[in-house]
Specification:
Order of helices and strands: EEEHEEEEEEHHEHEHEHEHEHEHHEHE
Largest sheet: 7 strands, mixed
Low-confidence stretches: none
Number of helices: 11
Structural class: alpha/beta
Distance between the termini: 13 Å
Radius of gyration: 21 Å
Strand content: 15-25%
Helix content: 25-40%
């Protein structure tokens, strides 16, 4: 028996049991192994993300846009994957918050095996976006500096690691919190490769010193006043990238004529899917396997601030439902210090 979370027509999340069904010549049966609860998933549940789920159960959308699964059975016409292969969705909207699914083989990409399945589960919406932010958004060379806010996010933690591998210096900005927690977070981010970690309250007084360095790229996940501080840190000709709005979608970014005319700053919006689509399927697979090799060799690590793994066991019944719905509610509340949650199917 399989299980799936779905989004009801009224916006709530429900848990269903069902028969996954059999394969046809072009489909495969996949057993999902792990799937994260991402901020993007919460936007989908809120109805504010433009790419909608493409899979449904009894008319209700199946959430989950990232994850890793194992091929259990293949249709007779399937040649690119075989039972036992690990796969990730090749398209948004696949619906990974379920234990099993019969999917078209063309909607999946085969990957090599990471030492920890959590890494594979976060490839498409965590690891690759971090790589694209450094590779595609600006021309950077060793010795250049970048600055980013929301630095405790998993994407930001991988940005720091990719920057370290390229010899790029990084400044990470975190939200203010109690002193002991700030100290622990600063140590953790520096262990990943961050050169400087500041709280939002510490940043303004440090801007004059930061401007002595060639800060070429600012990565903003918050918007509003926090984004303005990042703009103030950029060198002439620097690039500001907006990739999120944790401060609220109604926030505004204040610009002056000097930002564009005198300082020649460039402003860009980032969508990881758009950057991924610039690569062929072969290039995407090669890139994912390369990052997995880096992870398996220890050059990349899981987020230093930790993950929260939540077991999804079909046999748990009603307790399983409560645990899953509580996890989604906790993610929606975005409590300070909340670790990335990963659904682990057992």
């Amino acid at each position: 028996m399989a299980q799936s979370l779905t989004q009801s027509l009224t916006g709530g999340v429900e848990l269903h049991e069902y028969d996954a069904g059999g394969v046809n010549p072009s489909t495969v049966l996949v057993k999902f192994l792990a799937a994260p609860i991402n901020p993007l998933d919460l936007l989908v549940l809120a109805g504010t993300y433009p790419v909608k789920p493409t899979h449904h159960y009894q008319g209700q959308a199946i959430p989950g846009y990232d994850g890793i699964g194992e091929v259990v059975e293949c249709g007779e016409g399937v040649t690119k994957v075989t039972p036992g292969d690990l796969v990730v969705p090749s398209k948004f909207g696949t619906g990974t918050w379920r234990t099993h699914a019969v999917l078209d083989a063309s909607s999946l990409q085969k990957i090599s095996r990471p030492n920890d399945l959590a890494f594979g589960a976060m490839l498409k919406l965590g690891v690759l976006p971090a790589y694209f932010l450094l590779e595609d958004m600006a021309t950077l060379k060793p010795g250049d500096w970048i600055i980013q806010n929301a630095a405790t996010s998993v994407v930001a933690q991988w940005v720091v690691q990719f920057a370290r591998l390229r010899g790029i210096r990084s400044i990470s900005i975190i939200r203010d919190r109690e002193t002991a927690s700030v100290t622990q977070i600063k140590q953790s981010l520096c262990s990943l490769g961050a050169d400087l970690v500041l709280t939002e309250n510490e940043l303004p007084e440090q801007i004059p010193a930061i401007l002595n360095n060639p800060v070429k790229l600012a990565l903003d996940s918050v918007f509003g006043p926090s984004a303005r501080l990042l703009l103030d840190c950029l060198a002439v000709g620097g690039t500001f990238v907006q990739l999120g709005f944790l401060g609220g979608a109604s926030q505004e970014l204040q610009l002056s004529s000097k930002d564009l005319f005198v300082r020649q700053l460039q402003l860009r919006g980032f969508r990881g899917t758009a950057q991924l689509a610039k690569r062929t399927a072969e290039e995407q697979s090669a890139l994912m396997d390369w990052t997995i090799r880096l992870f398996n060799n220890g050059a990349l690590t899981l987020p230093a601030l930790g993950l929260e793994r939540l077991e999804w066991t079909v046999a748990d019944g009603s307790e399983n439902k409560v645990r899953l719905l509580t996890a989604i509610d906790r993610a929606n509340k975005a409590v300070l210090g909340q670790r990335k949650q990963i659904l682990v199917f057992t």
